Amino acid sequence: MKQENKKEHKFGMVIDLDKCTGCGSCMVSCMAENNVPFKEDESNKKDSITWMRVYKLTNGKDFPETEVVYMPRPCQHCSGKGGHGHSPCVSVCPATATDYGKDTGIVSQIYTRCFGCRYCMGACPYHARYFNWWDPKWPEGMENYLSPNVSPRMRGVVEKCSFCYHRYQLAREKAYLEEREEIEEMEYQTACTTACPAGAIVFGDLNNPEHEVTKIVKPDDHPDPRNPDVVGKSRNPKVFRLLERLGTNTKVYYLSEREWVRKAGDNYTEGEWETIKNHHGKTQISHG
Amino acid sequence: MDSALIPEGVKRTSFPKFFLGMAVVGAVVLWGLIAVVLIWWKGLNQTNMNDYYGFALWIWADLAVIAVGGGAFFTGLLKYIFKVDELKNIINFAVIIGVICYSSALFILAIDVGQPLRSWFIFWHANVHSMLTEVAFCLSCYFAVLVIEFIPNVLENRQLNKVSFFHHLAHNMHGVMAVFAATGAFLSFFHQGSLGGVAGVMYGRPFAFREGLLIWPWTFFLFTWSAAAFGPCFTLLVTKITEAVTGKKLVSDKTVHLLAKISGWMITTYIIAKIIDTIYWATVTVPASGFTFSHFFSNNAFYGYWILFAEIVLCGVVPGLLLIYKPTRENSNLRLLAIILGVIGVCLNRWVMVLQVMAVPVMSFDTWALYIPSWQEVATTILPVAYGIMFIALAYRYLPVFPQEKELNYPAQPVVEGE
Fold it and tell me: Which of A47, A88, A96 sits opposite B127 (nearest CB)?
């Protein structure tokens, strides 16, 4: 029996922003799970490593109409224009140190091959990639708590969220030992998903119609008729992706009942949003 | 002291004066080297780069020196392939400037990467889809070509040339130089272009992204074109500076006017293409991604419309027109103004295509990111300039770089019968 699943997966997640309280559990669990080092002073967020980062957004209105939303942002695991695997970062890496898994849809990072040119960071509009500006360090004794399943990264290389790929590997190994071809939905869940106390993050295989994430997102595998670079657009009018119009085709979706939150996911020229309302198939914007 | 090494028939400053000058510039080099050691020892935390500014001052310097070093390949192409023989009077110097620029570019890359010892991975694990891979291959190969082009000039040193083998080698290398010039032009087309492609393919960055032809974004062609256009400006500028420092006329006006004229037409045609590209980008590409043109030039403390005006009009249209119009081209002050503006213009273009790309917020809730380099970054960026000055000083002192130097400065005295 071959260890590899023959079926092609497309792992992704949907984050319910109306449930997210901004508690930061996802960030903490991610750092602990993935051996992410930290600095003594983490106040400069532009050079601290946060594979999962929670952004705070407001609707820009004064009290009492002020609304706040917290937006967790892991690596978006873009499948690139047309969904062919040419993610913004993967296509530019000169040393093939980052790759798109055709069997999983996960964008990987090979730390020992990365030589730290940082082109991938420049190409990523989500700031999901982080450079190790310093040698990785943990407070004394904390090294004992590092996960043996994830290799720590050395100074001078880029790292990022892997959708906890090691958990996928462990789930596959377990399935193999039990002589199963497939892994169950709950056997492979990312650390942030399991840590979220509000249950705001739903993770699974977007190719599997039985998975909860697919039921919520209802991805449309056909190219967007208005922009052929966009595939996997959600049929759920409450679901959106970050910077979808650029054609990055992320596999991290966001869900919100609030219109201003959905609007914040992308950029629109004046008056454009009114014709869009993020309602799939009913938009009228032009794409050059 | 070193008179035996100085080319015959020309005068050079005294050795102590030369040594003193080299020591002053050497101190700057030393300052840069201290910064290099710090960076290699302690890592890139010695810079002010961050996760928003992964590409910063060094990558700009890299792109800028390669752009201004473009005078080497373009002058070589004109001289050896298009047989513009007049340029033989400046080709040696253009090649020297090229060697300095490209060795500096490779040096900057060596300090810019996080794991310098793994730099060879770019060749070993090459990703053929990456513009940076193309840059690495063509840049390395072209530097080798430049060194080959420089070797005959070195072998013409007064003492080396006495060795029969070196004398004949230099002579024969000159004979086959057209092959290397053609190779250099071919390689330069691709690495200059792929440096433009580095920004142009980033479809996640609407400020940089350009549509294009097949796999090449328009920036690919614009970068090659601009290097060929502005590179000769830099060659002329450095020639002018060298003439000012040495107090001698080194290249005839005829040669200078010709190169300035070619540069002027290249700049003018380039800037027309650049204006068309900018209009198309602003009216088609940018709105398609949901942005407005003003988004890229407002709501921040530095990047305003002034930079666009400076790059395209002040340092593009103006030098182009000054150099194609004969009276202004042949006016030494206006020509100097034009070549200075041209060099600033191409450097501004590279700045915009590296640093402004990083600064512009893309996500609607993101903010502008501005950056000020650390002293280590500044020192290592000035280092190649000081190294270039030393290189030129040594080459000028010991090699016959300027074939017209004797006739322009030491006209033959008429021989009077009976004296």
Answer: A96
Determine, for residues A266 and B290 on separate chains, whether the beta-carbon distance falls below 8 Å: yes
Sign for the CA dihedral angle at B115, B118, B123, B128 comes to: negative
Q: Which residues contact B262 (CB under 8 A, 6 or more apart)?
A: B78, B84, B232
Look at B291 and A281; give whichever has higher pLDDT.
Answer: B291
Among chain A residues, CA nearest to B121: A95
A131 vs B44: CB contact, 8 Å cut-off? yes
Asked if A130 and B114 come within 8 Å (Cβ–Cβ), the reply is no
Task: Provide the whole-model pTM.
Answer: 0.93
B10, part of any domain = no
Concatenate the DSSP letters of all residues of A215-258 into one string: HHH-EE-SPBTTBTT--SEESSTTEE-TTGGGT---SEEEE-S-
A-contacting residues of B 186-245, CB under 8 Å? Answer: 198, 201-206
Domains of chain A with CATH codes:
11-276 (3.30.70.20)
Q: Please, what is the Cα angle at A148 between A144 and A151, to 5 degrees?
A: 105
Indicate whether A284 pLDDT > 70.
no
Number of domains in chain B: 1
Tens of pLDDT, residue by residue over B111-128, are: 999 999 999 999 999 999
Q: Could you give the CA distance from residue A114 to residue A158 in angstroms, rounded to a whole number?
A: 7
Number of A–B residue contacts, CB under 8 Å: 168
- The predicted-structure confidence for A150-162, as pLDDT tens digits, reads as follows 999 999 999 999 9
Chain B 93-122, CB below 8 Å of chain A: which residues?
A: 112-116, 118-119, 121-122
Q: Taking CB atoms and an 8 Å limit, are A119 and B198 in contact across chains?
A: yes
CA distances from B322 to A164, B139, B314, B381, B383 (A): 60, 32, 11, 31, 32
In terms of residue numbers, what domain contains B243?
49-371
Q: Length of chain A, please?
A: 288
We report the CATH number of the domain holding residue B147 as 1.20.1630.10
- pLDDT tens for A232-258 read 999 999 999 999 999 999 999 999 999
Across the interface, of A46, A93, A94, the residue whose CB is closest to B136 is: A94
- Hey, is B217 helix, strand or coil? strand
- Point out the residue among A115, A123, A126 whose CB comes nearest to the CB of B115: A115
Range A20-24, long-range pairs (CB < 8 A, 24+ positions): A20/A54, A20/A69, A20/A70, A20/A71, A20/A72, A20/A196, A20/A198, A20/A200, A21/A70, A21/A197, A21/A198, A22/A54, A22/A56, A22/A68, A22/A70, A23/A197, A23/A198, A24/A54
- C-beta separation of B96 from B153 below 8 A: yes
Is pLDDT of B321 > 50? yes
Question: Which residue out of B55, B111, B113, B115 would a mutagenesis test of the A interface target, given it has the greatest number of A Cβ atoms within 10 Å?
Answer: B115
